Amino acid sequence: MFGWMAFVPKQAHLEGALLGLLAHIPSNLDEVDGKYQLPTYVMDGWRNIECWLHSAIMGLRGKFELPSFIPAGPSARGYRRAHASHSIALKEAQAARKIFVLWIGLLSYLIARADTSSAQEWQSFLAERLQFHPSIIDLICSSDIGTCTLQSHHVGVFLHVIKKDIRETKQSSVRWFVAQNIPVWYQWDERVIKIAQWDSHLASISPLPHQMEFLRDEAHSHIPASPFMQPNSYPHQNWKQFFGKRRDRLRQLLLLEKPSERERRLNRERMPPIKKECTGFCMGQRP
After folding, report:
1. Which of these, 124, 139, 232, 282, could form a disulfide with 18 (CB 3.0-4.6 Å)?
2. Is 121:28 a contact under the CB 8 Å cutoff?
3. What is the chain's alpha carbon radius of gyration, rounded to the nearest angstrom?
4. Alpha helices (runs of H) in the chain, residue ranges in sequence order
5. Are 180 and 109 in contact (CB under 8 A)?
6. Is the separation of the CB atoms in 33 and 135 below 8 Å?
7. Is residue 112 predicted with pLDDT exceeding 50?
8. Phi-psi domain of 181 (left: phi exceeds 0; alpha: psi -120 through 50; beta: other)
């Protein structure tokens, strides 16, 4: 039911004639009768995007009989009306844009499913039945909506791999999501390993030996030794290894640190927070 959420982009490419108007929310809002709203050209542009997205989603969902949960529309957050304050108007516009990103992921999923059912038929359906202009269809095809590539990072999904669970949830297969360049995760425990011994399909998606070895080493390296344990209780784990891995990971995180994050971190290091003792009346108790 929620398989479409895997297609939601981590960072949507809001650019070009198709989605470019969503990229920037102007800070200089229009003031009408003491209230604040998005400029008219922005509201009209967002409304047009919402209309064609809704039309495409509902049309493809009905045409190819694709069950899916439809989230509330972006206009539910009130980007098309005025608000009492400047900050509320901006907050609602930002929330509406996040819903646009959800709808982009949903349409991408429906197109991928439609392609699986009947290659490229969705394009003729949008053009002939829904009267989409050919230029709009071309823009959809050339964008991340119509083509999921390795460069267009998506949220991904946790999947079932046992046939009984897949049938009950009507989930698409692991191979289908991988073919769409969608990241997938699934549990690989002792139960699954036993079934994979006689299930060739399950065995074909099993982790590679070096991946299992890496996960085993990672699991051992994060088990801190207790002072109450005997020295040889965990021969593969010691504090030097544990903190060595933590230092290596910290160096990697610092390379990704933004200037603002670095400034906050340095300020905390220069002036660490101080816990003050409670004085006077505290928690309802008298001194």
Report:
1. 139
2. no
3. 26
4. 16-19, 40-63, 86-117, 121-128, 134-142, 163-169, 174-179, 190-196, 200-204, 209-221, 239-255, 259-270
5. no
6. no
7. yes
8. left
- In 10 A of CB 106, how many CB atoms? 24
Report d(CA 132, CA 137) in Å as an integer. 7
Distance CA 135, CA 149 (A): 21
3-class secondary structure, 194: helix
Q: What is the pLDDT of residue 212?
A: 66
pLDDT tens, position by position, 224-261: 544 444 444 445 556 777 777 878 877 777 777 777 77
Q: How many CB atoms lie within 10 A of CB 216?
A: 11
Cα–Cα nearest to 62, from 101, 110, 3: 110
- Contacting residues for 59 by C-beta, under 8 A, at least 6 apart: 125, 126, 129, 130
Single pTM value for the model: 0.70
Are 200 and 190 in contact by the 8 Å Cβ rule? The answer is no
Question: How does pLDDT run across 18-77, given as a tens digit for each residue?
Answer: 999 999 999 899 999 999 999 999 999 999 999 999 999 999 988 877 766 788 999 999
* Letter string b/e over residues 80-98, b meaning 16 or more CB atoms within 10 A of that residue's CB: bebbeeeeebbebbeebbe
Amino acid at residue number 157: V
pLDDT above 60 for 8: yes
Residue 109 structure tokens: 């999923």
Give the relative orientation of helices 86-117 and 121-128 as an angle to the nearest 10 degrees: 120
Give yes or no for residue 137 having a pLDDT over 80. Answer: yes
**Range with lowest mean pLDDT among 38-47, 103-112, 167-176, 237-246:** 237-246
What is the per-residue DSSP string for 93-151? HHHHHHHHHHHHHHHHHHHHHHHHHSTTHHHHHHHHTS---HHHHHHHHHSTTT---TT
